[in-house]
Specification:
The structure holds two protein chains of two kinds. Chain A has a domain at 50-227: Cytochrome c-like domain (Cytochrome Bc1 Complex, Chain D, domain 2, Orthogonal Bundle). Chain A has ten helices and six strands. Chain A has helices at residues 11-26, 50-62, 75-82, 86-92, 112-117, 127-130, 133-141, 168-171, 204-222, 226-260, and strands at residues 70-74, 103-104, 143-145, 153-155, 174-183, 186-196. In chain A, a hairpin with a 7-residue loop joins strand 3 and strand 4. Chain A is extended, with a radius of gyration of 29 Å. The relative contact order of chain A is 0.14. Chain B is built from 18 helices and two strands. Chain B has helices at 2-11, 14-23, 37-58, 66-77, 81-108, 117-139, 144-155, 164-172, 179-211, 237-262, 295-303, 307-322, 324-327, 340-361, 366-384, 395-418, 424-430, 432-447, and strands at residues 26-28, 234-236. Chain B has a two-stranded antiparallel sheet. The chains are: A alpha+beta, B mainly alpha. Chains A and B meet through helix 1, strand 1, helix 6 and helix 10 of A and helix 4, helix 10, helix 14 and helix 15 of B.
């Protein structure tokens, strides 16, 4: 059998040519971000920290739910996330007067939204999927005094936010750290951080802990199947990996016959 | 048992079909990695049908209920609902990825050439049906991106003069995307298009088995048969390729389920993060864009500052794909035996497509729109310049091609300048992209003619034996 001819140009040369072409065009890539972004404060969520999740649940259900809903979540399903018995859950966390199996809806009386809030506060069920934990953490801790706003406050990561600074009594007021930057392409003073202005009822460390706990809890309700994923994933991946090995061996077994036999079709000369 | 089977076999062509389509179907022995994607796409199709069935059972096609029927009813209240939904989400993207790779395989190895033109054309229709299926399904979760994406696309029809608007209203069943739209999209997504898709896949397979499979060498294995009229370069599809494809499927499912279990959102690419906000008819998002698999077409649409011409620009790319057998009439099938410049052109086809996707991933800034226009010109060039490679050209013909191609690109650009579509400065900044590409291609062909020559010797028989040679 004759060895087939080597290709005229080998793939390495071709790859080098293309790489050169790509590199020369790559210089065209430009940044299209026209607004200066405040840096996000890093956070690691820990779904194993029961105390943090329970603390986050308390603040979420007793503060946030005054305006926000979590329509995708039932009170009864929180029991599993917080790993409590039903009696203990009802005693410690509670259901805001709803039935145990109800979904979590805002306790704001109907009519209030139409009367003066105007904008429906976003549902928090999957807010941790819509926004990253770092974004939520930065958002919760970065309200600053801005007299130009109706609520008197603004936020570094959500410019002209409608939500009032409900944390002010706990955290105290904050003032912005302004830098010259861009907003929607035009030069503007942009808040990229905050500094404490007044002292609230909590110490800085206490409030930071509280904000982290709320993010932890919101992440947990946004990703209710994280534990199941972690438990099932390795088994399923392992199953298909094993299947890959098995089917590879079967494939080799069948194809060995094809490759080695001298009498097979393609071994016959031209 | 044998008698029972015999009873059925006498009345239904079971064993004869098995024989003719699997154990007796000769497949070239040298399929490489690129030949896994067809069978993998079929596996994903089955996965989508199976998961889609369960999703449809729990889904509520009503704007008031849809969003929460997905995020609460399916994901939280139904057992395994989250897993089934995530398989369906990852499956949609996997389907497109596999189909794109499958199509590029066809382009590389000339699988659209005689006698497989119709096979290719049916494939294009499968792609269009798949695109329709993905678009229709995307509205169902009733998130912000679902809603506004559908609003944008159903508005395409209004680009048609006079009758456009009534037709758009008729298609939506309403003046805006609303309950009637959601109802019909649901029905089309779970019934009409899947049936069409299955029928097209079946016809695709029938056509394939009628003309036989192409291969990486582009050799027609049926031209060289032994005494019992079996192709000397063919092996029975079953068991050889069934066991090989089983291996491919297993490896694919490892990657697939990694996404399903550990990254179902796919970094916001497989499922847009904005879709975690319920649809709001009063609030248009700042940036509406499709999922990753439609991004290149979106860049083409945005590149032209007119709705009708923009739609023609991206619709034209499907026409170009369908016309591939007419454009590339070179008798040499496989890229292995084509000229260097042809290879560069085919690589550029893929690269410009990816580049368009990258551009559309960014915001709709004027920069991105202009870049989109110019890279669209490159993408179109990679198709429209194919006839040049049909045979060897003299230096004079090469110069004519060069001038003509540059003239067409510059006429389009001058048109854009004349209607003040984009700023002069922006246009000039990236005008060189298509200009340089065409100049490079034909310049090299003129200076080094050998680069435009196909390999002289074509193999009469297959040169490689699968993965082991």
């Amino acid at each position: 059998m004759t060895k087939h001819n080597a290709p005229l140009v080998n793939y390495r040369v071709l790859l080098a040519l293309t790489a050169g072409l790509v590199a020369s065009f790559g210089g065209v890539a430009r940044s299209s971000v026209a607004t200066t972004q405040a840096p996000l404060r890093p956070i690691t969520v820990n779904l194993q920290d029961k105390a943090a999740l329970r603390n986050g649940a308390l603040y979420t259900l007793h503060m946030c739910v005054a305006c926000h809903s979590l329509q995708g979540v039932r009170y009864s399903s929180l029991r599993k996330i917080l790993r409590m018995s039903r009696t203990r859950y009802e005693k410690v966390i509670g259901t805001n007067g709803s039935h145990y199996h109800d979904t979590i809806t805002s306790t704001m009386p109907s009519g209030v939204i139409d009367a003066f809030v105007k904008i429906l506060p976003p549902d928090l069920t999957v807010i941790a999927r819509r926004r990253s934990p770092a974004w939520l953490y930065t958002y919760l801790t970065s309200f600053y005094v801005d007299p130009s706003r109706p609520s008197g406050v603004n936020n570094t990561v959500r410019y002209n936010v409608a939500m009032p600074d409900v944390f002010a009594p706990m955290q105290g007021l904050q003032k912005p750290v302004m830098v010259a930057g861009l907003r929607f392409g035009s030069p503007a003073q942009v808040a990229v951080g905050v500094q404490p202005l007044t002292q609230g009822s909590m110490s800085r460390a206490q409030f930071d802990r509280t904000a982290r706990d709320i993010v932890d809890f919101l992440y947990a309700v946004g990703h209710p199947h994280e534990q199941e994923r972690a438990r099932l994933g390795p088994w399923i991946l392992g199953l298909f990996l094993a299947l890959s090995v098995l089917t590879y061996l079967i494939y080799r077994l069948y194809w060995r016959r094809v490759i080695t036999s001298e009498e097979r079709w393609w071994r016959v000369g031209k | 048992m044998r008698r029972v089977f015999g009873w059925f076999d006498d009345r239904l062509p079971i064993s004869s079909t098995w024989r003719s389509q699997l154990t007796g179907y000769p497949a070239p022995k040298n399929f490489n990695l690129w030949y896994f994607f067809g069978s993998l796409a079929m596996v994903v199709l089955v996965l989508q049908l199976a998961t889609g069935l369960f999703l449809a059972i729990h889904y509520q096609p009503n704007p008031d209920l849809a969003y929460w029927s997905v995020l609460r009813g399916i994901e939280r209240d139904s057992r395994w609902g989250w897993l089934i939904r995530d398989i369906h989400i990852v499956g949609a993207s996997a389907f497109f990825l596999l189909v794109y790779l499958h199509m590029y395989r066809g382009i590389m190895y000339g699988s659209y050439k005689k006698p497989r033109e119709l096979l290719w054309l049916i494939g294009i229709f499968i792609y269009l049906a798949l695109a329709a299926e993905a678009f229709l399904g995307y509205l169902l979760p009733w998130g912000q991106m679902s809603y506004w994406g559908s609003a944008v696309v159903t508005n395409f029809v209004t680009a048609v003069p006079v009758i456009g608007k009534p037709i758009a209203t008729w298609l939506r069943g309403s003046f805006v995307v609303d309950l009637p739209t959601l109802n019909r999209f649901f029905v089309f997504h779970v019934f009409l298009v899947p049936v069409l898709l299955l029928a097209l896949v079946l016809v695709h397979l029938i056509a394939l088995h009628h003309v036989g499979s192409n291969n990486p060498d582009g050799v027609e294995i049926h031209d060289n048969v032994n005494e019992s009229s079996w192709p000397r370069d063919g092996i029975p599809f079953h068991p050889y390729y069934t066991v090989k494809d089983l291996f491919g499927v297993s490896v694919f499912l490892v990657v697939f389920f990694w996404f399903v279990f550990y990254n179902p959102g796919g970094w916001g690419l497989l499922l847009d993060k904005l879709n975690y906000t319920p649809a709001n008819i009063l609030h248009t998002p700042a940036d509406i864009h499709p999922l990753w698999f439609f991004l290149p077409f979106y860049a083409m649409l945005r590149g032209v500052p007119d709705k009708l011409y923009g739609i023609m620009a991206f619709g034209g790319s499907f026409v170009l794909l369908a016309c591939l057998p007419l454009l590339d009439r070179n008798p040499v099938r496989s890229i292995r035996y084509r000229s260097v410049l042809y290879k560069i052109n085919i690589l550029m086809m893929a690269f410009s497509f990816l580049w368009l996707g990258y551009i559309a991933h960014g915001f709709a800034t004027e920069h991105n729109m202009v870049d989109g226009l110019h890279v669209t010109e490159v993408f179109y060039s990679t198709f429209l310049l194919l006839p040049f490679f049909n045979r060897r050209r003299s230096a004079r013909v090469k110069i004519v091609w060069l001038l003509a191609a540059e003239a067409v690109v510059w006429l389009v650009d001058l048109w854009m300048y004349s209607i003040h579509a984009h700023g002069w400065d922006l246009m000039l900044q990236t005008d060189w992209i298509p200009t340089l590409y065409i100049l490079l291609l034909f310049g090299l062909a003129i200076v080094f003619p050998a680069l435009a020559h196909d390999r002289r010797e074509l193999p009469q028989r297959l040169t490689a034996g699968g993965l082991f040679h």
